[in-house]
Design a protein that fits this description.
The protein is about 10% helix and about 55% strand. It is mainly beta. It has a 16-stranded antiparallel beta sheet that branches. A hairpin with a 2-residue loop joins strand 9 and strand 10.
Length: about 240
């Protein structure tokens, strides 16, 4: 075993010992091209550089650089091309940077952030996303977009409740359901039932599905073989 590998193995062992004081069930592993670390009196810091990867139980974080710091490695900070997923909670993510608080179980994604709810098939994107894993809420801020089934949403701010599949939109929200479009000061959407509630100044456009079908039928080309011959009096003249 090389000195570099031994050095990493020692820090992995230290990490397990330190985190064990926080919770015996927590398991953390990591890898990278380069590692730097310090530790004293329970306050430790480890920086992973190049192809960095950290796994906390079922949560995996990848980045160009990842730092673990704070008492008992409470915080995980990732930068560069950040992405990852949690197989147990059923979500994946990507962003320019990430800050994760292991104690509060809150992840903050910043810069072209995307979080996909794999269980409910909901895709979210914003410049800033805060995901609270304990109460399963996702707060989205600035340039918010969300898609689910036949619904797509845009707004400045949004709060998504994963457990109840409820979505609250504010800041010039726009919701599109098929060909229908809704605008209001505040919009609430049940993503399961696709029910939409509008509050404040309301505007929108609704397409008549039956009318669309009639127009589509009217636009069908005439079958020349089936159509009766046109009489001279029925001819269209220019």
């Amino acid at each position: 075993m090389s000195y570099h590998c031994r050095f990493i193995a020692i820090f992995v062992l230290m990490l397990f010992l330190c985190t064990g004081r926080v919770t015996a069930s927590t398991k953390i592993t990591f890898s990278a091209d380069k590692l730097q670390g310090t530790g004293s009196s329970g306050k430790t810091s480890t920086k992973l550089i190049g192809n960095a990867k950290v796994t906390v139980d079922t949560l995996t974080i990848n980045g160009e650089a990842i730092e673990l710091y704070g008492k008992d490695y409470r915080y995980i900070k990732a930068s560069g091309v950040v992405n990852g997923s949690d197989s147990e909670k059923g979500f994946s993510f990507s962003a320019s940077s990430l800050l994760y608080d292991r104690e509060k179980e809150i992840a903050l994604f910043i810069g072209s952030a995307k979080v996909e709810d794999l269980k409910n098939k909901v895709k979210t994107a914003a410049e800033r996303i805060e995901y609270n894993q304990k109460n399963e809420t996702i707060l989205l801020q600035i340039a918010v977009t969300l898609t689910s089934k036949d619904i797509s949403c845009d707004s400045l701010f949004a709060l998504y409740y994963r457990n109840s599949s409820l979505l609250e939109l504010t800041g010039k929200p726009v919701v599109k359901k098929g060909k229908d479009e809704f605008k209001a000061a505040r919009i609430s959407v049940n993503l399961d039932t696709e029910d939409i509630r509008l509050e404040g100044k309301v505007a929108g456009t609704v397409t008549d599905a039956e009318k669309d079908e009639e127009n589509a039928e009217a636009a069908q080309p005439i079958n020349e073989e089936a159509a009766p011959e046109m009489k001279d009096s029925e001819a269209v003249h220019e």
